Each structure stands twice: as C-alpha cells, then as structure tokens.
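Consider the following assembly input.
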Amino acid sequence: MQTHTFKPDLPPPRMSVGAVGWLKANLFSNWFNSLLTLFALYLIWLVVPPLLQWAIIDANWVGSTRADCTQEGACWVFIQQRFGQFMYGFYPSELRWRVDATLWLAIVGAAPLFVPQMPRKAFYGLGFLVIYPVIAWCLLHGGVFGLSVVSTSQWGGLMLTLVIASVGITGALPLGILLALGRRSNLPAIKVICVTFIEFWRGVPLITVLFMSSVMLPLFLPEGMHFDKLMRALIGVILFQSAYIAEVVRGGLQAIPKGQYEAAAAMGLGYWRMMGLVILPQALKLVIPGIVNVFIALFKDTSLVIIIGLFDLLNSIKQATTDPAWLGMATEGYAFAALVFWIFCFGMSRYSLHLERKLDTGHKR
Amino acid sequence: MHTTANAPRPRGSLLNDPQVRAWAFQIIAVIAVVALGWFLFQNTQANLEKRGIISGFAFLNNSAGFGIAQHLIDYTESDSYSRVFLVGLLNTLLVSFIGIVLASILGFLLGVARLSPNWLISKLATVYIEIFRNIPPLLQILFWYFAVFLALPGPRQSLGVGEMFFLNSRGLYMPAPGPSESFGLFAVVLLATIVGIIALGRWAKKRREATGQIFPLLWTSLALIVVIPGLTVLIGGNPLVWSVPELTGFNFRGGWVMIPELMALTLALTIYTAAFIAENVRSGIMAVSHGQTEAARSLGLRPGVTLRLVIIPQALRVIIPPLTSQYLNLAKNSSLAAGIGYPDMVSLFAGTVLNQTGQAIEVIAITMSVYLAISISISLLMNWYNKRIALTER
C-alpha cells in the first residue's frame, strides 16, 4: 500500500516573523503608520538625548558648593547638600532618628496587612490604626517619656507631606463612610444634610478650603481654644477629602445588590448591624482601588499647603531655590520634587491596579 | 392579609417603633446641626467684636489701591474692591476656558494615540500619561513658571518668530487685531454667510430624511465661508489692522501680551488635565464593542465614516460624564494660580483683598460661592448635553 507522507511545512515568509515581521506589523504597516513612526522617532530624538545629556552625562555629582558645579548639565550637588532639609524640614538634626523610627514602625507594623494569608487581618488593621497614630505623635512631637518637644512648626519636608497625607486619609475615611451611609439613608433630613455637605466640599477647590481653615477657623472657635497651623490645615484636608471618599463609598454601596439588604433585614439585623456585618464589608472591598485613587489625589494635593505657609516637600525645595548661595537651581529642585512625587503616586497607582485585578472576583453581573 | 390589617398592632416599646426612631434620629440630627451652627455663629460674633471687625459687604465699595498685572476690563488702582472681584473672576474664567479647550484637544489626540496600532505612538502616549498625571499640578505650575518662563532672556534678547511673535521673561508678545473701516461690512457678510450655512444644513437634513440623498454639506459650507467673505475683503479692503509688538527702549509696545503667569498656568493645567482626559477617551472608545465596527463595515461604510457615525457617537456617551468632572477639576485647579501670583479669583480676592480688609468671612464666602457657581454651571451644561446625546430607548 502506498503511504502518503506530507512534506514538511515551509517556514513562514521571512518578512512576517521575527524582528522584521514585528517591525512591519507594528510600525510600518502602511504609509500613514510609517509617517507616524518617523514622527515619534523624531519626538524621541528631540527630547531624550538632551535630557540624558543634561541629567546624567554632563551632570555634576560631587562637591559641596555651587562653585563645584563646573559642567554644563544639572547640578545634583544642590540636592545632595539640601537632602536633609528636603526630607525633614527644620526638624532638629540630632532628633531626626525619631522621624526615621516612626517611618520604620509604620512599615514594620503595616507589613503583615500585605500578607494575604494573615489571619484576623481586619482586627489587626483596626488595632494598628488606633495604636499607631498615638505612638507616632509621641515620637514626632515628643513631650512624653523624656523626649524633648519638637513643635509642629519645625516639621517639614517629605515627612510633613507624608504626615498630612496619612492623617488626611485616616481622618477622612470614617467620616466619608458615615457621609456615604447618610446619603443613601431613607431619612430625608439626614440625607439632605449629607448631600449638602458632600456637594459643598466637592464644589470648591482645596485652596479656598485651606484659606478658610487658616483664616476663618480661628474666628469660629471659642476664646482660649487654639489650633496650630498644621492642625488647621489637617482639619481642612480631612473635611475636603471626606466628601470625595463618601462619593467613592457610595459607588460601592450602590453596587451591592438589593437582595443583600433584604436578606440582612430578613435575618432580623438592625440598621447598624446590617451595614457593619453585611453591606459595608462587601462594599468597602469593592471600593478599595477607588480609595487608593483618592489617596493618590490627596497625596498630590498636599503640595497646596505651600499656600498657607507650611513647609512640605515642595515648599522646602521652593525656599531652597531662592537661597542666594544656590540661585538658578530651580530646574534641579523641581525635577527632584517631581521624581519623588512621581515615585509615590506611580507606585500607588500600580498597586491600585493590582488590587483591582485581585479583588475583581465576585459581583460581576 | 385583610384580616390582620385592621387588627390592633402588637404593642411594643415606643423605642422599637421604626417610625418613631426615624423621626427621633432626624430631629436629633437637625438639632445637632443647628446647635453647631449657632455655636460657631456665637463664637464668630464674639471674636469679630473683640477684633473690631464690622461684618458686611460695605467694604466692596472701598477703593482697592493696588495694581493688577492682567485685567481684561479697564482697571485702575482707585477702583473699588467689587471691580477687583470682576477682574479676578474674568481672569479665572479665561484660564479655565483656554485650559479646557487646549486640554480637550491634547487629551483626545493622546487618547486616540494610546489606542493606535502603531506600537511606538501608543507607548509614547502611555509614557506621557503616566508621567504627567502622577506629578502634582502645583509642582508643574511652579516648574514652568520659575524654571522655564522666568529663566527666559530679557526683552532685548527675545526669542522671536518672524518679527511678529516675541517670547521673553515678561511674556509672549503677539500681534493684536483691531477693526479697520471695512470691518462692519465684513462682519455683516460673515454673519449672513453663517446664517445661510445653517439654513442650508437644515434643508440638507430635511432632504436627506425625505429622499435619502446626501448633500456634500461640509465642502459646500467650507467653500461658502471662504469665498463670500474673501470677496468682501477683495472689494472692501482688509477688515483688520494688526498692531505688531515693537521693541522700544527696554520693553515691547503694541500687540497682545500673554504674561508668564498665564502661560505657566495654562500650560501646566493643559498638560496635567490632558493626561486624565486621554484616559477617559481611551476607555470610552474601548467601551464600544468591536461588533459595532464590524457591523458598520459589513454595511459598507468606509473606515472614516464608521468612526464618525458609529464609533464616536457611542463613545461620547461613555466619555462625557468623566470628562465633565475633568473640566470641573481644571476649573478648580485654576485656583493654584495663587502659587505663582497670577491675578485670579483666589490670589486677588482671598489673597490680597483679604489681607487688606481683614473681612475673612465675607471674602472666603464670596470666593467659595464663585467656585460653587462655576462647578454647578459646568455640570448643568454637561448634564444637558449628556441628556441630549443619551441613548433614547424605545
């Protein structure tokens, strides 16, 4: 019997596989595409080589004064010399270990929360949220356990940025959840109060809120009651952000099917137990990425405290660029600030994307 | 259920009656809010009295006594604070308007570029978006202002483009148009042409719906709007006289000037907001399922027509709501002008005027209500537009 053997397959045409094929498919598929590619290459050529030249190749890396910056490019000596101020502000240099300790404590304390197998995570997290701020305040501000007092007017730099952002989000979260519940409430009076509150804060820019908290808050308070500048800024930030958190949480509450509410009510749960045990755990899980996004926005917005004269990272850098010994360093200073902010915000947005993918399990209807 | 409806309700404790509870909660909440308001009001009264500040809006009629770098309406130092308010408001609106227009254009381009089949273009757009949306807008404004525009050479060493545009540390100088004698005629003819084109469009639509014939509206209107006013120019002469900036002494005279604060602010806000708009546009276009494209193609529509008549109208429905909030953000972010001293609402009113008069409550209240009004009007406008293009389900 005659057997038929197939000839081996011919290899695909050289032009459609490998590097050449990829180039042809993705960059030069037709004349318009080729034109776009050339245009993009031109843009890259326009931006990247000068940037590298300035930031790395021609940059000055070592030295201690402005006179050491002899080369054409960036003068990173400026950043090196002022690094301590950018990170800690006017915090006394011999006490800066306290700031470091606070940060390490936060990292070590929060680390278990990122371990997926950790049991009783919510319990631990809540405990951490209650205990940590007390320790952080004792360490940063001092005044107890023989630690000398460092008043908040000496706080500054990246440390102040982180303090405002983290206090802002921790304060805004519970308030925001309450507001969201109020907005979804069946009680008309409570609903009106919450809606007014939320829409008011969402309609005005943060700057006016900060202005308000710095000039109007002292007028609102009874005699003898006094908040320092940082506290006033924090109150403004918390009120402002709580409105945004409320809207995010409301989105989560709306996504929970009505059956969940009905089932909880049928089990005989009252309003608070229904919310606390059934609805909120599901809703909050849904909106964690949204909350991270609010936090990113808050982190970027902390830079606005410059307007009311707090020395956060951006303001420290701005002040340093006006130093007569380092004139003309604006580009280096702002580039450094941009890099720091970018690393934080980009990192968090990647984390939020990761969470979104991880948590996107149920509720797909 | 009829039998139980009339039966007396089981008497529980009044505390457990949901209706009673609801009322109680609401009354408590209202009382708490009113009490808080009353408490703050009392404190404020006492504090104001102690500091000798007379509340009220009478201060608005006092003379301001300071100059403003940019005013769209006539303004002198002796004008009143209410005039300052108007100047600030117009400056805020100017920045918001330019920013919204430019950011929409750049954002749409970037959003489309991110979906481009060209690998390089889409990666470039991604890099742009990821870089600029993760840097605080205030930082970008400060960068453009202090590191770029103030570092430009002085007026004598201006960077010029063809003796018309000059860029230096005092701003961007450009030719300004002014009306000449034939401007009236030109304006009338232009207006008449536009009205004619609108009428033509109505007629073309009616005819298309009645007969199915398509009228080449775009090309006809383009031809009309070029030819008819063009003829007027040929007959009546140039309707505009251009005032070109000229270097006299140490500074430029004539023409329009865009002060560096305005440039820094609009540039930074445009770049920042465009990154967000691009993401909205991308998700909007991706939300239109591929089947729509295939269906349109199988009906015989060409790619351009598919995009214009099938994809974009559907994508817009998804894009508009988040786009509205981006516009709102831009308008609110324009208040960052206070960081570089551009004379907008916040830096003029909540800054200078507040410092001069000490009328904290009135000034902040006015400033906040302006932003609330802007926010509400933008969202009303966009809601109206959104409703107009929304899916009408039958």
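Chain B touches chain A through 53 residues (CB under 8 Å). Ask yourself how this observation constrains the way the partners meet.
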